[in-house]
Amino acid sequence: MEIFAYADGASRGNPGVAGAGVILTTDDDEIITFSTEFLGDNVTNNVAEYRAVILAARSVVGLGLNKNSNIIHIITDSELVVKQLNGEYVVRSEKLLPLFRIVSALFDKIPTYDISHVTRNLNKLADRLANLAINFKINDLKKYRPKK
Fold first, then answer.
1. Could you point out which of 2, 49, 54, 128 has its C-alpha 20 to 30 Å from the C-alpha of 114?
2. Who contacts 128 (Cβ-Cβ below 8 Å, separation ≥6)?
3. What is the pLDDT of residues 40-54, one digit of tens each?
């Protein structure tokens, strides 16, 4: 079975308030899982994109897939992240290097994978999830909790 992990990071401002979104689907377009993460304030777009790929890789590793029967396709609209992770670009940024190392360590736990770049219009669901993470950050949700 092939699994597609669509990942996107969003930053409103650069740096700004940021979120990450991931959706995992089967090759039959069935949703396996999706997740969002609020990343905080003063986060650059490139950091948000890396954090989204980390979220995707953790989601894939968390599935505990059989190494012989699953191919994982990680898809993002960040050309920089894809080219750095594929070894086409060197990571020079001190902010991105630790994130690059985290992703690389997670990828070591995924037996068969590839990572590829798509245009933003082909990554809309992950983009919506990343923006949802920003819109529903934890501090905003507290006001909707029932009073005790």
1. 128
2. 21
3. 999 999 999 999 999
Q: Give me the domains of the chain, ranges plus CATH numbers.
A: 2-68+77-137 (3.30.420.10)
Buried b (16+ CB within 10 A) or exposed e, 31-53: eeebbbbbbbeebbbbbbbbbbb
Q: Is the pTM of this model over 0.70?
A: yes
Q: How far apart are CA 6 and CA 8, in angstroms?
A: 7
108: its two tokens:
């070591």
What is the DSSP-derived secondary structure letter of residue 147? P
Residue with tokens 């909707």: 144
CB 129 within 8 A of CB 22: yes
Mean predicted confidence (pLDDT) in 116-131: 96
What six digits make up the tokens of 142?
């507290």
Q: Where are the alpha helices (DSSP H) in 16-123?
A: 45-62, 79-85, 97-107
Give Cβ neighbours of residue 144 (< 8 Å, ≥ 6 apart): none
Tokens of 46: 């490139």
